Amino acid sequence: MEQHLSFDLGALLVFGKVVEARSLSKAATLLGMPKSTVSRKLAKLEADLGIKLLRKNTHQLTVTDLGEQIYGHAVSILTEANGVRALVEGSRHEPQGELRVAIPVFVGIDYASRVGATFLRRYPHTRLDIRLVDNMVDPVKDGFDVVFGTGPLQDSTLIARKVFDLDLFLCASARFVAQLAAPLTMPAHLDGLPFIDFGFCGSRKLTISRDDMRCEVSPQVRARANNFQVCKQYILEGLGVGAMPAQIICTTELREGTIVPVLPEWRPDPLAVHMIYPFELSFSTLISAFYDTAREIIVENTARA
C-alpha cells in the first residue's frame, strides 16, 4: 500500500475537534492536551497543506469553505479508525483497552460507581473513564465510546440498546405523609401539594397511569433539579411529593421507611435509558461487556428495592 501523505493524520483529527468545539481551548480540554499543542498542530497542518483552514479573531473562530470540506474527511477518517479499533477488540477473547463513557447525572453516582467498579474488577485488562454529564452529548463529536441517554436517536449512524427502564413511583417522606390533614387516596389530591420535580412537570402537567387509566394532575412545583439525588434529599427533608426511581436511588430509604410510596397504584411513565455508541463499534467486546455489567447492576438494584 503506497503512502503519499504530506501531513500528520493526528493533526487532522485535532482540526476536526477544533471545528466541533469552535474553540481552541475547549478542543484542548476534550483532547486532554495543552492549548499550545493544539495551536502548533493546526499551524503545522495548514503549512503542510498550504491552505488556510481557520479564521481567528478576538471574538470568534470560523472555518473556511475548504476547511469545512476537509472537516468532512476528518470525520470519515475517525469513523474508519473506530472501525479498526472495533475489529481488533472483536478478535480478543477478553475485553482489553480503555472505554470512555458519559452517564447523565440523573442516573446517579451510586449506580455509575457500582457499574464502574464491577466492570473494572471483572475485566482486569481494561481501563475506564466515566464522566457524569448534565446534558446530552454525542459519542463521536464529544470523544466518548459510549453515552447513556433517553429519547429517540437523531443520528442513524448510532446504535441504541436499551439498558433499562427507570420505573418511577410517587413518594414522600414518612414525616410529610404523617402531617397531611387527610390521606392521599386519589390523583386530584396531588394538585394542592408541593411537588419536587425532576422535569416531568415542565408543562405543569404530570401524567400518571393505573392499569388502562391515565390521569393528568397539576401539582405545585416547589423545587426542581436535574439530579435524582438532589430531589431525594428535598423529599427526605419533607418539602413535598416527588417521582423517584426505586432501582437506583431509593432502595435504602424504602427499606428503612424514611421514604414511603404515595398513591402506589398510580405511576408516572417510565423513563427509558439507552446505551448509545457508533455503529462502527457494534462488535466491540469492551462495549458488550460494559452493557452486560450495566444491565446486571440494574437487575441487582431492582431486587434490592
TrEMBL record:
<keyword id="KW-0805">Transcription regulation</keyword>
<feature type="domain" description="HTH lysR-type">
    <location>
        <begin position="7"/>
        <end position="64"/>
    </location>
</feature>
<keyword id="KW-0804">Transcription</keyword>
<dbReference type="InterPro" id="IPR005119">
    <property type="entry name" value="LysR_subst-bd"/>
</dbReference>
<comment type="similarity">
    <text>Belongs to the LysR transcriptional regulatory family.</text>
</comment>
<dbReference type="InterPro" id="IPR058163">
    <property type="entry name" value="LysR-type_TF_proteobact-type"/>
</dbReference>
<dbReference type="InterPro" id="IPR036390">
    <property type="entry name" value="WH_DNA-bd_sf"/>
</dbReference>
<dbReference type="GO" id="GO:0006351">
    <property type="term" value="P:DNA-templated transcription"/>
</dbReference>
<dbReference type="Pfam" id="PF00126">
    <property type="entry name" value="HTH_1"/>
</dbReference>
<dbReference type="Pfam" id="PF03466">
    <property type="entry name" value="LysR_substrate"/>
</dbReference>
<dbReference type="GO" id="GO:0043565">
    <property type="term" value="F:sequence-specific DNA binding"/>
</dbReference>
<dbReference type="InterPro" id="IPR000847">
    <property type="entry name" value="LysR_HTH_N"/>
</dbReference>
<dbReference type="InterPro" id="IPR036388">
    <property type="entry name" value="WH-like_DNA-bd_sf"/>
</dbReference>
<protein>
    <submittedName>
        <fullName>LysR family transcriptional regulator</fullName>
    </submittedName>
</protein>
<keyword id="KW-0238">DNA-binding</keyword>
<dbReference type="GO" id="GO:0003700">
    <property type="term" value="F:DNA-binding transcription factor activity"/>
</dbReference>
